Recover the amino acids of this structure.
């Protein structure tokens, strides 16, 4: 049986929010720069072509039917606008080549980026306008931004910034403060266009820093950014932190966010129990081991397991990959995630999911 959507993403979100019948749970495969493969262009075209960025997002939506679209190409756009050097492969995601400053004495010379003038920030803003106009009221559009702590690492270099935690905390605070100012200016420009910012904070991961360092160097600036966004247009932002985040879940939920996206190394069930009454949970099908390297059957099983773990989270649940998908993720696997969610339907019947799991595992 072929399952299709009978609602637009906007209609689905409204129905679920009001407790009404819907066709399925929200689902966001988080295809990221893999949209270039769908649209038929090289990733390098994204770097300076706002229309290509927007049209590739729409191409992915028309092919698979996910529930959100986001303007976001790589982690380094904001550091680059503040003086860092970025390497642009012909057909892969941009990477950091050189941080903005290399010695502590130069930190004071850093200035917040102007989102309307500096490097690729205006390109992204123009892409948002195209996407907003193409999507209309059918699907929610957002704009990704790296958090202040993560962007600070790219301004000074990851390894050198880690050393500052113990050797020169004052310098790291200066980096985070100037980084925050860029994040706020960009977030404001995003909201002025009519999109909502989403925040990625990979360097705040427990895999990178301990919870003590997170609370001292990341949390205060993250809070200020989130408060700024909420006060400017009433938006509760979605936040993603890579890796293991269990020890900081409650810190994050207390920020008043609209959703917490967790990586596949964390437990959806534990996250639901810890903070599900405070914020929506998103995740967390393994983007590499399952979505990229697995079979459609692997994708189906893991998607069902994630739904079973979190479908009843009090503030809501969105089926999602644990992080951005690798560029070459097979289309068949993305389609399988979407089709599995469609077959489950909404409201979710856990007995139906258990039967589907048994069948997928060859036990039915």
């Amino acid at each position: 049986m072929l399952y299709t959507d009978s609602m637009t993403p906007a209609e689905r979100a409204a129905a679920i929010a009001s407790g009404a019948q819907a066709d399925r749970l929200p689902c966001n495969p988080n295809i990221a720069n893999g949209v270039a493969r769908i649209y038929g262009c090289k990733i390098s075209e994204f770097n300076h072509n706002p229309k290509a960025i927007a049209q590739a997002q729409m191409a992915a939506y028309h092919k698979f039917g996910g529930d959100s679209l986001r303007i976001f190409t790589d982690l380094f756009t904001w550091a680059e606008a503040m003086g860092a050097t970025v390497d642009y492969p012909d057909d892969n995601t941009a990477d950091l080549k050189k941080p903005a400053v290399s010695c502590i004495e130069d930190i004071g010379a850093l200035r917040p980026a102007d989102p309307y003038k500096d490097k690729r920030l205006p390109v992204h803003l123009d892409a948002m306008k195209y996407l907003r106009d193409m999507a209309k009221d059918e699907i929610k559009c957002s704009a990704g931004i790296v958090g202040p702590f993560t962007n600070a690492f790219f301004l000074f270099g990851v390894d050198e910034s880690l050393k500052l935690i113990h050797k020169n905390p004052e310098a790291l605070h200066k980096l985070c403060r100037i980084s925050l100012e860029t994040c706020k200016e960009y977030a404001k420009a995003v909201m002025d266009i009519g999109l909502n910012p989403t925040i990625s904070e990979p360097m705040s991961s427990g895999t990178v820093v301990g919870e003590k360092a997170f609370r001292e160097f990341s949390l205060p600036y993250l809070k200020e950014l989130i408060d700024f966004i909420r006060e400017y247009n009433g938006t509760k932002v979605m936040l993603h932190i890579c890796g293991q985040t269990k020890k900081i879940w409650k810190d994050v939920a207390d920020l008043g966010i609209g959703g917490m996206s967790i990586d596949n190394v964390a437990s959806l069930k534990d996250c639901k129990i810890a903070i599900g009454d405070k914020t929506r949970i998103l995740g967390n099908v393994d983007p590499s081991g399952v979505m990229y390297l697995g079979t459609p059957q692997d994708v189906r099983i893991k998607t069902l397991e994630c739904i079973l773990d979190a479908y009843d989270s009090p503030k809501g649940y969105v089926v999602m990959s644990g992080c951005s998908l690798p560029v070459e993720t097979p289309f068949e696997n993305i389609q399988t995630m979407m089709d599995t969610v469609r077959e489950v339907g909404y409201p979710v019947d856990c007995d139906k999911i258990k039967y589907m799991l048994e069948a997928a595992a060859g036990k039915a």
The radius of gyration is 20 Å. Residues 314 and 335 are 28 Å apart (CA to CA). The chain has one domain: 25-360.
